[in-house]
């Protein structure tokens, strides 16, 4: 008779090594469940990457490869990675942001207009998609 091991997510044992030698083991967590990265801490200072050897650091980004579309290329303001739409003032913009309605570099003529405020434009909110289509039709008629 072989022993049965019960493992939890805080177990110091490596699950892969257990799999290799044990026929049966029980997990008290779902290993395929996605993790919520927003709950992890992010170490901003790369020189401190390995400083927290006490296990207090959940996540540390030490390198980045390739380009990020909504950061390194022109993008609509509501998709900006540097200035998240949900957590920063909509009037702010990076050097690659453009107006969703006008399809021009931010800030456009109506960026902070009291009635129109294109800085608030998003494809998922209100009738901005309709205004964008209308603006494109209007500009096509004048060409």
Q: State the major sheet.
A: 2 strands, parallel
Average of pLDDT: 75
Subunit arrangement of the protein: single chain
Helix content: 10-25%
Principal-axes geometry comes out as: elongated
| Cα radius of gyration in angstroms | 24 Å
Topology order in helix (H) and strand (E) letters:
EHEHEEH
Order the strands across the largest sheet as they lie in space.
Answer: 1-2
Beta-strand residue percentage: 5-15%
What are the low-pLDDT stretches, counting only 5+ consecutive residues below 50? none
Number of helices: 3
Number of strands: 4
- The N- to C-terminal Cα distance equals 83 Å
Secondary structure elements and pairings:
Blueprint: E1 5-7, H1 15-21, E2 25-27, H2 69-72, E3 75-76, E4 97-98, H3 128-141
InterPro entries: RPM1_Interactor
């Amino acid at each position: 008779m072989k022993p049965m091991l019960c493992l939890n997510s805080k177990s110091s044992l490596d699950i892969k090594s257990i799999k290799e030698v044990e026929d049966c083991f029980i997990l008290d967590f779902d290993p395929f469940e996605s993790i919520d990265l927003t709950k992890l801490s992010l170490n901003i200072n790369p020189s401190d990457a390995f400083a927290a050897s006490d296990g207090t650091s959940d996540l540390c980004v030490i390198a980045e490869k390739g380009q990020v579309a909504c950061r390194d290329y022109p993008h609509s303001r509501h998709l900006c990675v540097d200035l998240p739409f949900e957590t920063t003032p909509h009037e702010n913009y990076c050097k690659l942001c453009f107006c969703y309605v006008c399809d021009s570099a931010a800030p456009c003529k109506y960026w902070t207009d009291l009635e129109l405020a294109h800085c608030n434009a998003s494809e998922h909110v209100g009738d901005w998609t309709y205004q964008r289509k209308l603006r494109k039709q209007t500009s096509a008629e004048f060409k």
